[in-house]
Task: structure prediction
Amino acid sequence: MEATEATRATPGSPSSAFSIAKADLNAWVAGLLEAREVIAPTAAEDGDVLFLPIASPEQVLWEFRNPLAPPKPFLFPQLDPLLQIRTKGRGFALDPVDGARPRILLNVRSCDARGFAMLRAMFAAEPADGAYLRRADATSLVTLACHEPCAEGFCVCCDAGPFLHDGFDLQLTDLGDRLLAEPGGGQGRRLLAEAGPLFAPAAAGDLARRLEREAEARRSFGPATCHFASAMRRVSTGRVPDALWEAMGDWCLECGACNFLCPACYCFSVADQGCDGGFTRCRLWDSCQYPAFTLEASGHNPRARRGERIKRRLFHKTSAQYYQRDGAVGCVGCGRCVRACLGTTGLPALVAAVRRGAWHG
Amino acid sequence: MAVQTTCPFCPVGCGVYLRVADGGLAGVAPSEGHPVSRGRLCARGWAAHEAPAWGERLTHPLVRRGGCLVPVPWAEALERAASGLHEVLARAGGIGVLGSALATNEENYLAVKLARGACRSPDVDSTLRSTYEPLVRGLTEGGAGLPSPGALDELERCDVLLLLEGDVARTHPRLASSLLRAIRSGARLFTLGHVHTQLSRLATHHLPVRPGRERERIETLAAAMGAGPAPSAARSGPGERLLGARLARACRPGVVIGPLAAPPQELRELGRALAELLAWLGRPATEVLWLPLPVRGNLRGACEAGVAPDWLPGWQPLEGDGPRRLRALWGAEPCASRGADAAAIVAERAGLVVIGEDPSATLPLGERALAALAERRFLVVLGAFASRAMERAEVVLPIAAFPETEGTVTSFEGRRLPVRPCLPPPGQARRGWHVLRDLIERLGLARDAPLSFADLEREMAAAVPASAPALGTAAPGATTPGAGRPTAEDGAFVLALDGPFDWGSDPLVRFSPTLRREHVSRRKLFPDGLVELSAQDAERLGLRLGQRVRVVSACGEAVLPAARRADLEPGVALVPFALREHVVAVMGGAFRTEVSVARV
Result:
């Protein structure tokens, strides 16, 4: 989605919202598929849900628990070829790899959309990352607002859900037999226009119901009590004893899942992959929790201990210094770092330990 | 597209989705519904897509001509392999086949069929078998059984756990994850080892032990509880008594044995001592959760497929119905005599077929194993990645890596887990079972129609009796108390390898840009090798950082840099398995030896 288009929506605004009958959803998705790739949550093995490119509208899940793997790889791939390097005469020819293609990310949850906004802010900062921005600009983000809280989620504490007020192209809300669609900018309005009569201007009752649903969701998601603030005070001022970081470190198994599954994390490394007659320079996901992430060529590692790496991660996520730069904590409250942690060091546990000054595993 | 398959690294058997985009592997995703991993992957699992895409892949069949390997059509390469092996057989030179923990169950079964059926040779083994099977054999001789599906979940419900360390947090992170959850739920963990590892720091009590004295420590523990054959000089501390009391009273005790660098007989005795200890404590083996851990992926599957010198597929003994059953399936009399182990096969056999791995990367002898390969008259290598073994091969047959083939692997819990293809093999490479099938047929075990994968599955099922004999039903071997125990006086050093395996030598790590970094860095930093000493010993010897020490054993000596480790037991000089080449003269290919250490 285009950053400039991500204007603040006005929920309940009679002029902007439309609705579509659930019976028409397949027809809408079929129309979307004609012009672009559609990525949506789909049923996979063992009851899993995965965001995948779909071939038919029937594959799209409209009711689902947010998948463990976020849609992040479709804008920020785990293995991202950036540049072809070939010998040419006595020098080299450099050709950028253009991975951008028209896409729709459909039924993205609010927390993941918030993550994309954070990624965009990072990749758009100077020097801007053309590979990411081209891909993001070619992608439309259609979100599906949440009504049921996730067991491990805490998006209300991060201003990342259950409903969004910006950072989407189209926000869908389930109203029972139909979905309300609110465009977040020009791309969303174009999607609605393309769909033609499948979407009808929302009735006043629909708009009222949408506001009720948001209020209901906010109640069921619990109070927006945020413990980041107290953690921020301690982390930002270096008031967490080293022994506490070390204690946390013994409960981390350095899997990197907290980075890879975090919608807001963007650690990466760069490596060249040999191919016929040259190389492809690739960006690879990396983890600040891996010892090799900061390993220097001399063999020195400024963050050799797990506790030091956890400290760094929490500093990036919750410190006042980063909050001032980014305008938000580096977390969207999706809870995936809890669901996938091989150890017991998901972000909420770390924040709680810093706040209490004690770690109990 | 994303295809769910089984993680190819350690033997826990996590479920992982491989993402495919633009005709190549693009990444992985965890499977939250998978019965083993439940959405939790380790760093290796997260990089499972890298090596097949980045590795130096074998894409064409190669045969040696004029000293060089040259690409040839498949038919010619297979014919050259078959005729070369025939020539060795005709000269009665002896042919050995090495299966692998990197190969699928189907490939390992066909390795057995190639050796015992097509080549009529008993010499089939894998280089890592001796790090696992003797331990399992010892446990079963003591009455314990192999773990069964669900053991990982059961581990989280244990209330008292004994962990014989092999640094399980590093070698088997998903299993360590279950240990952490058990501790958080209130389980008491006791660790036994010569390094204060991450898990030992979380233990209720850590029992330090010098390498090779694990069994002695177990017997001391039994003596502390007034049971078992107490060693004459048994000294028990509060840790032993506490562990003994906890194990005796536990509702659900569990014993986890990480990969240990020890000789086979010692592993077998340790396994039996552990099982007997629990029996002495009034805990029949069936009440205890036993988790012996294979060091790499499909090692249990390779053993169960019959990749071993002294049993047939399904742990069947060489005598009895097994050979008859195989004769009916293969249409040829299987060789049912006892074969040589992997080290002897590499060192002595005139013909050798190596499937999936480089023996020099896994045998304690390291590069010296290559010298034995150099003298070999005929070496056939089946591999997905380039390896040092290729340099000595007459024929190289390129096979698919794990994302390109179908089959099964067997996890440490005994789950038969699927390997599913999501890409075609690169170039002209073929699936490993395909290549082995064709080679077997060219060596004389031909069928009317080529064996399909479904045929192969049926044949494998029929090769194993419905009630497979349990490992360890063989007569218990003689156990001499104290055998294999170090005899050095206190104060001498035990020079030991830090484990029986090095992930950095594994092709799936070696070719992964994310996973290889630390391993490459260590090799670069210590080009002359490394020996690690405890802080106390380093202090006593007056060693400064990087200073060299002379290490002398009965075999020989070496001079190499020393480093101090705060987490190591005094009296132990530890050498990373990856850097074992620098102490081969001292250790002579063993996992451990007594040495003196002096500052140079």
Chain A touches chain B through 42 residues (CB under 8 Å).
